[in-house]
Amino acid sequence: MEITNLLCQALQQKSQDILDAMHLVSSTKRLIKQLRDTGWDKLFAKVCSFCEARNIDVPNMNAHYVTRRVRARQQQENYTIEQYYRVDIFYTAIDSQLQELNNRFSEQTIELIILSTALEPREGNESFRIDDICKLVNTFYPHDFVDHEKLQLKTRLQQYEYNVVQHSEFRNLLTLSSLCQWLVRTRRSTIYPLVHRIIVFVFTLPVSTATTERSFSAMRIVKTRLRNKMEYDFLTNSLIMYIEREIAEKLSIDSTVDDFRDLK
């Protein structure tokens, strides 16, 4: 029970950290695009001011830019120094950063993670957003719901908000996993099967490949040549304890012994 609670708390904290990171990535991408569109003039003015204060000559930005390659010079006779610094250096550097961010954090991934928080109970009633949940289903899970379920979804969510979100016990839930368990325990998962299905989809969402990558690395350490006959359950438990060793260090040995004793 103790390791389960710690894992739930860690998953909740990771979910919040990932959501904050997604908002940070989105705002960073917008600011970088804004810098690309309107930042050249301000940057050039600062460079000129820096050069003037230190008696550094500023080249004539309207002059022709001359390259060392004759063929390139012939093809770009009207290419100015200002165009070289603005296009070949300023724009290229910013486009490289944007491309890297887009490769690692696509708009679709960011939208999926942000919409997935619409069902989490950590912020009480304010976190429940019906329109975002409908958009989540129609955009990312269109084949997991038939047409009549999509038509009924908004009505079912409104009923869920009135009968579940407003419930006093709901306000004590802190994580999506605890919400899922509470719905099953109170049999509300059978009353609102569409909502429960969405929660399961969101709860099993692989928000990161870091754990998977760490699993393959840990496999070589845990399952050595002398341990090549480990059974699946024992190997799985050993990998969990090794991968989540930061959580395992918080466990009490005495409580673990007591839990093992209670199993018998």
From TrEMBL:
Q: Which GO terms describe its molecular function?
A: protein dimerization activity
The HAT C-terminal dimerisation domain, residue ranges: 175-246
Q: Which SUPFAM superfamilies does the UniProt record give?
A: Ribonuclease H-like
Which domain of life does the UniProt lineage start with?
Answer: Eukaryota
State the name under which the record lists this protein: HAT C-terminal dimerisation domain-containing protein
